[in-house]
Amino acid sequence: MLIGTLVYGFVNSAILALVAMGFNLTFGISGVANFAYGAVYIFSGFFAWILLNSAGLPYIVCVIGAIVGAGILGILMYYTVILRVKGIALSEVMATFGLGLAIMELFRYFDFVGFRYTLPIFFDGSLSMGEVYIDYQRLIIALIAIALTTFLYFFTRYTKIGLAFRAIAQDERTALTFGIESDRIGALSMAFGSALAAVAAIVILPLGTIAVEGGYEVLINALAVCIVGGLGSTVGILVASVLIGYAQTFTANYLEPHWMILVSLIAIAVILTIKPSGLFGKQKELEERV
Amino acid sequence: MQMLKVENLMVFFENALALNDFSMELDEGQIVGVIGSNSAGKTTLMNTLSGLILDMRIKEKRRGGERITIYGKIIYRGEDISNVPPSERVKKGIVLCRERHPVFGESSVVENLRIAGYLKSRGHIRKTIEYVFEVFPGLKRLRGRKAGFLSGGEQQMLAIGMALVAEPSLLLLDEPLLGLSPMMQNMLVESIKRLKSDSGMTVVLSEQFARPVLPMIDHGYIIENGMLTLSGTGQELMDNPEVKAAYFGV
Ligand SMILES: Nc1ncnc2c1ncn2[C@@H]1O[C@H](COP(=O)(O)OP(=O)(O)OP(=O)(O)O)[C@@H](O)[C@H]1O
Ligand SMILES: [Mg+2]
Q: What ipTM, to 2 d.p.?
């Protein structure tokens, strides 16, 4: 039982890390807290579902389509809405949150509700480790989370765009003196963040159904991880994912599965009272932004 | 050949006039000094030449503010670039090194130099990084260190090195000697002269004190309250009693 909890706790941590990664990336680079993040997540899920079931495309094409589609949605949101309010934190939050609500509730309005909205798992079957069984889909989630973290580490250190991401995150005006434009990089950071939300959706959603409520839950979890870890800090995200991930799994296994989301909410409340900048966050940045 | 011509530049921040009818001209290969005390308008001039002020104005306008006003013309190599955005100016070879040695503190020295090469090819970046290490040998052994952990002087060398990676034809240095020891100042002055002799680079540098820079410049402009009060060759300014009194310190 304990081994099982540890293994599932790890998978749950990977899920949280995946979910928070895109939100954190966009915020870390352009300073925009994208409250439409959960909406992008379920948009990706429904979009993949439509490509698969209504257009009848091969699944791999649907996956790529959803990731690219989410990226484009991110760029559109950036240029049509975020750019207008950029730098005014409260307006950014209102604008992205409103946009997110509109997207999610539109899906509900057009009746995207019910058990038929599911995405296929990648491989059937499961792996046994002693008396613990773990299905391949959960293994894939853990692997993808590790792979993406590694990829982002190297991407931001060795590629031009990655270096430009880090430059803008540190000092926008100095970056501009080398021709790095904050608007362009900001749009790219939304594209990347949204594409990461799509990747998370594609691997995580097969565990359940695609539902509008899932979008709200994803946003809460992403916020919890980022606030506990410290917005913009990659190490913080990983540590917070593990902390909240295990806390959720223990709660679900030994207390009550319904309380999982409560763990995230309590974590937000506790960290905001004790250390508002998060475990690894920079106090100054948060004070400036929030 | 004439490289840059600034005509009647005026910059307002709200109602405050930071640059007042400022004009200057410079030829290819010259080193030009802009000398003025605190809040004289040096940084405003540099930021206007590099396009940063234009960018600030555009971003402000987008949010509905109208705080910044710019009048006047900047002619670069015969082309009016007054409305050209900063990244395009970098492409044309106008590169600014901002005041107070701005470096990306969380990134290593080499990463900083690579960031500066955003618009350049990998080959060019590799080559100029070697050149930067040649001009500033002290940076080489620090290549892996986070820029935030460098001393002020080291950061200034890095900041100028970064500007070099962006391949300037016209290098704008905003108070490069600020906060440096006399020895370090001499070393930087020698490096700047070397840039001119190595590649014929044109340099505009601003400074509060005239003493370290007047001997090296071809032409100098004295600026007070955003206004040009005096200009002349380095020697002419050195001989001027008013300049001596105001900008030579003790
Ligand atoms: N963004 C801004 N908003 C409002 N006023 C500004 C702004 N930037 C500069 N100013 C004002 O314009 C004037 C000129 O400032 P500037 O920074 O150009 O001076 P400086 O010569 O560079 O001074 P220092 O030697 O202290 O760096 C100052 O009075 C300053 O307060
Ligand atoms: Mg200044």
A: 0.95
